[in-house]
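Exercise: predict the fold of this chain.
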Amino acid sequence: MKGFNLKLIVHILGLLLLFNSLFMGITTLSSYFMHDGATRGMLIAFMANLLIGGLAMGLTFNHRKEIKKREGYLIVVFGWLTMVIFGMLPFIFTNSVSSFSDALFETMSGYTATGATIMDNIESLPKSIILWRSLTHWMGGMGIIVLAIAILPLLGIGGMQLFSAEAPVLGGDKLHPRISDTAKRLWLIYVGLTAVNALLLSLSGMSVFDAINHAMSTMASGGFSTKDSSLGYWNDIPQIQYITVLFMFLAGSNFVLLYYALKGKFNRIFHDTEFRWYAGFISVFVFLVTVSLMKNGAYAMVDSSVWISLEQSFRHALFQVVAVITTTGLVTSDFTAWSPFVTMLFFGLMFLGGSTGSTSGGVKVMRHLILIKNGLLEFKRALHPNAILMVRLNKISLEQPIVYNVLAFFILYLILFIIGAGVLSILGLDFTSAIGGAAASLGNVGPGLGEVGPAATYTSLPTPAKLWCALLMLIGRLELFTVLILFTPYYWRKH
């Protein structure tokens, strides 16, 4: 660890633990007032985060206020791991989970906004634990580090290295020259949309508690629900599902565009190439799934009831397509039971992802768009080898290093998916469950295929498989390179 500003690293990790303790304090108070029997465990977890976080910051108060790029990667990875390890404590101290691996899996799934769960009977959990699950989503959705850098200037620390490591945006589009101001504006939009979502859900028939939890899960592109059947619990209230679809769509959109929309600059949205493709992908796949459902005539839902109407086919197709593309992972139905074609289609959608600069995981529409445009240009280059042909997005030519980065990312993503599925198969999962679990974990989707499908949980997985899926979640959430670079020898060489 020579050459690293260790005091600064510990200081920021302490700051993140204080964030943890702040939200744990909220859940502790909620437990006390709701008398759910988890107050003592929540209080112990809160005190542990508060004391260790405060101690870490206090002992490193005289740190050198400079973040280098190498330290940025380290802070991001260790920051997420620290939040996850200490975020497990409420589950452990309240005896809500039976093992360390289950607690780690659930917490990692929360902070990475994956939405995969080992909870088989969510409705029996203390309400404060359900709230804590949703809060881990909400913190991780926008990004723990993006929250941190909004505060770093108060400490005299610049945050660009952290921002670029945690949330690399192709093109580097910022709302403000100061990265801290950008983070604050993004968080204001995030908080505002969460509040509006919760209000609309509560007015549509959800309880206030359910509305708040689902709003946090939706805006984080998370997937945790307060009900065992997820949004399928409200299949008899269509407006709840349409509202959720709208906010899943917004959460999967570039937050920079949402900022311009709030300022009335709608032309920026409609002229954005990625947004048009994002909306176009959703439209095409919703049409295909709806047609397939209507052709089949009927399909079984989670509660075993059957729908044959166009509206119901369209609604469930729309919900599931948006949920998978945005990697939210909420479900209204077991889409793997619809038809083999639809199952295969949804498996492919797990590799799509939302927009760049959104809370969604996955590969992202922007990268697919660059790959498609570059692939088409290869035909022209074959005919005109001397021509200089550049990939263009929003009338701007992309530099070749960006294209190479996208190609490298996609190849690495596929390699990690194959390795991830291979390891899961070695650990005892069947072929369908292995590829579904790997794709869902790496893409932060949540529900996979087979025994980890939309109608099931990850409870049945052996302990090593749960830990492996948790690692895939972290790698996928932090855009591959941020985590994997720590395993390269040249990263640790003194520069």
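Check your answer against the key: Residues 6-251 form one domain.
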